[in-house]
Design goal:
Elements: E1 3-7, E2 10-13, E3 18-25, E4 33-39, E5 46-52, E6 58-60, E7 68-73, E8 78-83, E9 92-99, E10 117-118, E11 122-127
Parallel strand pairs: 2-11
Antiparallel strand pairs: 1-3, 3-8, 4-5, 4-9, 5-6, 7-8, 9-10, 9-11
């Protein structure tokens, strides 16, 4: 079984920063890509950022581009999300997800369906 665990959430004032972490367990697990999604109260879960391990290419939602940075360590199935210039609209539960690879899933990294494994989420609250 694969487990993903997020950490690093908390309360921060608008304009501040947080860094989220996600660690995966499982001795034989490897991933093609990992990503971050978020869900605010009363809203659908939305894509935030993703990283493709083979070339390190990153992908971002327009709403966070220029403010958030995704990085990680493929060998450890660990991914980070550095969030700068936080806004109240960023308040949400943030989820880590992993695409195990093994087949072609298309060019879009913003689709929830490409990711097989999900964490439990970590709360990020940005005060105004």
């Amino acid at each position: 079984q694969v487990q993903l665990v997020e950490s690093g959430g908390g309360l921060v004032q608008a304009g501040g920063s947080l860094r989220l972490s996600c660690a995966a367990s499982g001795r034989t697990f490897s991933s093609y890509a990992m990503g971050w999604f978020r869900q605010a109260p009363g809203k659908e879960r939305e894509f935030v950022a993703a990283i493709r391990w083979n070339d390190g290419r990153t992908y971002y939602a327009d709403s966070v581009k220029g403010r958030f940075t995704i990085s990680g360590d493929n060998a450890k199935n660990t991914v980070y999300l550095l969030m700068n210039s936080l806004k109240p609209e960023d308040t949400a539960v943030y989820y880590c997800a992993a695409d195990p690879g093994g087949n072609y899933r298309g060019p879009l990294f913003s689709r929830e369906t490409r990711y097989d494994y999900w964490g439990q989420g970590t709360q990020v609250t940005v005060s105004s």
